[in-house]
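Figure caption, in words: inputs first, then the predicted bound structure.
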Amino acid sequence: MDFNVSAHDHQLMDQVDGFVNDRLLPLEQSRQSFDEHDNICEDLLQDLRAEVKAMGLFSPQMPVARGGAGLGPVGQALLYERMNRSIFGPVCFNCAAPDDGNMLVLSKVATPSQQDRWLQPIIDGRVRSAFVMTEPHPGGGSDPSMIQTRAERRGDRWMVHGHKWFITGAGVASHFILIAKTGEGARDGLTAFAFHKDDPGWSIIRRIPIMGPEEHGGHCELRFDGLEIPDENRLMEVGQGLKLTQIRLGIARLTHCMRWLGLAQRCLEVAHAYVNERKGFGILLKDRESVQMQLGRVAMAIDTGRLLTMRAAWRLQQGKKARPDISMAKIQVADTLQLAADTAIQLCGARGYSQDTPLEWIYRYARQARLVDGASEVHQSVISRAYLENGREFFAWGSGHD
Ligand SMILES: Cc1cc2nc3c(=O)[nH]c(=O)nc-3n(C[C@H](O)[C@H](O)[C@H](O)COP(=O)(O)OP(=O)(O)OC[C@H]3O[C@@H](n4cnc5c(N)ncnc54)[C@H](O)[C@@H]3O)c2cc1C
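Bound structure (flavin-adenine dinucleotide present):
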């Protein structure tokens, strides 16, 4: 791996830094910037998105031919952490979950005409999207082979019946990617489809209240009572729903890590500013060894996460699947985000517990990181499987194995 950053990428990073520092960080300080679910207000978001578009940095992860900046996984790793130094950052650049992962998978697997129909409006910021997979008991969660929502073929259409939940963004999404059961095979029993919010035969039962701040459109529970999907809206072949899911979640997990590393760095910055000026018992907090040990521990955890994330991104860029690499990054960065928020709150004293800094927001948000896109325990199993299959090769340098 080459850790040098090109002049072009440096320039993009500086542009992102400038926007985050000058436009977003000041806005975070006003309660008026937030909606009732603790996310950025829609009106303000639209204005900021227009500014990012004018900078040429909206949807930068998308191909140039579709209006993006053509960033590969390494470029994304460089920019996303900088965007998410602000809690408002990723959504302003159209790099937030779930649209980010949905765009990345549609750009890889959808046909050109499906991309015109389902992808381009998300890239342009004209619609939002959602990924519909997880189900309540006894349906599929960590184990997708348990998915029960069924799509049955009727001529050139599919009829969908079932129940899903925790679907991020469903309350405002227009474009949905659905994973449904179409056969009995553990690996080829699922198929993916696109559908539109105005298609009849499905509904939102409720917006599930959660611990942390919510993405736009919340996390919703959905019922399917005969949604009809034309076969032309099937994504990939019949039976390739699990494959689509793996393609989507691989990169989506990693872009979560990229963003969370920015949030973790922000926590450290807030703590840094406080311990730099706060005195107690005759000395500055930053001169206390126990404070230094806490800051050092978090800084090292963040950089460990950055190395794992960048290695996984680099391997993806070499055309590898990098599954164990992504799992390692996901576990490390999810834990680090929680550690960083918790440590920063502790070091900032009562101020850390207040809403005068973004720390309490990040602390509430951080707990989901160990669950979304695969619980940490499931990722440990992925790593273990790769080790058992590859033995010493598991530790090979270079582009590695899958
Ligand atoms: C904020 C948030 C947003 C989400 N957004 C979406 C979305 O947009 N679309 C979507 O489809 N889903 C979404 N999800 C769902 C998420 O992907 C699932 O929660 C996750 O896959 C785990 O599934 P589950 O909740 O059914 O947990 P379960 O499968 O019931 O597992 C419960 C726990 O059991 C343990 N466990 C499970 N399997 C194993 C194993 N093999 N080895 C060891 N321990 C294990 C883990 O500790 C796990 O946390 C979201 C979840 C959250 C919290």
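The mean pLDDT is 97.
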